[in-house]
Amino acid sequence: MGNFAQEQPSAYDDEIAIVGMSCIMPGAPNLHTYWENILNKVNAVSDPPQDWGASYCLDPGALANDRIYCVRGGYLGALAAFDPVEFGVMPNSVDGGEPDHFLALRVASEALEDMRSPKKDIPRERVEVIIGRGSYVNRGNTNAILHGVVVDQVLRVLGELHPEHSEDDMDRIRSALKASLPPFHAETAAALVPNIISGRIANRLDFMGTNFIVDAACASSLVATDLGIRDLLSGRCDMAIVGGVHASTPPVIMMIFCQLNAISPSGNIRPFDRRADGTLLGEGVGMIVLKRRRDAELAGDRIYALIKSVGLASDGRGLGLLAPRLEGEELALRRAYEAAGIDPGTVGLVEAHGTATIVGDTTEIEALTRVFGRWSEGKPR
Predict the structure, then answer these.
(1) 0.85 exceeded by pTM
(2) By the 8 A CB rule, do 192 and 97 touch?
(3) Bridge partners of 20?
(4) C-alpha to C-alpha distance for 200 and 190, rounded to whole angstroms
(5) Which residues lie across from 24 on neighbouring strands?
(6) What pLDDT digit, counting tens, does each position of 255-278 carry?
């Protein structure tokens, strides 16, 4: 009778290595500058770019549903640059399309370049792309709506108010209105479909694993990371590019958040501060490259950090649809640390959500206190 020994799972068989990273953030064209800005406490909040359109709807004292009482935020501005030729993209498909498509492609490529591995062979048929992306109206979609619905509405109202205008006059006005907008044509159409964001990355970088986008509100990039981890651990892929993208914040998004009274009237974001009066919206793109720890070590990859677990939860039935619930936040935290087998009391750094809204900050502080306990001398903080 033959004898055999089954290899015992190592202590890190379920650990995931981050082997590449890249980003574009307000005030930071790359990962190095972003980290330096954090260390140097750089405030990247600013007024929007001149072409943003704020002058049409900014009214600090107004509460009307078509006005914005604050336009400050974290804007990419000129950092939202993309060279279509470098990635084999038709140049006339970019202007008028969603910036998310093209900046996500650029940052995913840069994250791969950031991998420091002596073995650069990538199993392209085993690489997944999962991107967190909100389903908000974006620059490209807004442009398509303006070309179609809004121009027609303007012409109809103008014709009713000024019937003396001839058909030729109306045609000239239509042409002038459309000429003032970014282009909208067959080449830009694909860049207006959100789920093509991940498909474009897989296409241009020649990956044949699963690709899709996920929208989980503020947790979108975290959920994308969790899904990538699950597929790596299950063996469905050998590498995953995951992250999040929100590359433009058109006025219509600000109108929505102003209607919710979520935006800071003072134009300042002060998380966990007594002076906090609301949040500000920010743009950015961030990607990480994930591999199983064992595979990363065998390949000699440079490992930034290890992900031991991700904890997720919903709030269930709370006080309101948009109000955070203490029990939900606590549950997500406890699930993460229990799955990782880590005592929260040994944790030295926590990156918080920090919305700077009264109910958001209060709920988050209470959830963190329940899980980590109150700070005392000698405990990590």
Answers:
(1) yes
(2) yes
(3) 289
(4) 10
(5) 285
(6) 889 999 999 999 999 999 999 999
